[in-house]
Amino acid sequence: MKDNNCIFCKIANGEIPSATIYEDESFRVILDLGPASKGHALILPKEHFKDICELEDSVASKVLPLAAKIGAAMKKSLGCAGFNVVQNNGAAAGQTVFHFHVHIIPRYENGPSMVAWTQGEETPEALAETAAKIKSAL
Ligand code: 5GP
Ligand code: ZN
Q1: Which residues surround ligand 2, an ion (CB under 5 A)?
Q2: Residue 118: how many other CB atoms lie within 10 Å
């Protein structure tokens, strides 16, 4: 299913041109317009899913192998030292385009620096309480 108001549906299906680095029947992989580093790419399914919770298993199962393939090609072709695989769900998590996508962000020896969290502390009791809450909703 496509969403006529969704820019990533239009890009993924070729209605809007993009710097495409890979395409198959299920996905288009493009370069991000506002890259965090040289080569920053986005994996877009051709079907519209709002986020990871809506994604069909048949599509989801192909995403990580594709991310690995793209990342390996970046290391060979761009000389990055590594890469991050990032995927945001919900505005609170930084999602700005509500068509599921995966960022592949090359990391070079000299950067870029990426946002990281500060490690907190939690007692075993508090961890158990939180774990029980999440388990009850699975
Ligand atoms: P999000 O914040 O939703 O995880 O990521 C959305 C990403 O899409 C951002 O990194 C943004 O730069 C990129 N983006 C938004 N609109 C376009 C577009 O029209 N073309 C391309 N190539 N990237 C886009
Ligand atoms: Zn869409």
Answers
A1: 3, 6, 8-9, 48, 99
A2: 4
Please tell me whether the overall predicted TM-score, pTM, comes out greater than 0.85 for this model.
yes
Q: Are 84 and 107 in contact (CB under 8 A)?
A: yes
Q: Quick one: tokens of 99?
A: 């068509």
Burial of 5 (0-12, 13-18, 19+ CB in 10 A): exposed
Question: Count of alpha carbons within 13 Å of 126, Cβ hemisphere only?
Answer: 4
Ligand 1 atom closest to residue 7's alpha carbon, by position in its atom list? 19
Cα–Cα dist 70/124, whole Å:
39
Coil, strand or helix at 99: coil
Q: Is residue 37 over pLDDT 80?
A: yes
Cα(9)–Cα(49) distance, rounded to whole angstroms? 10
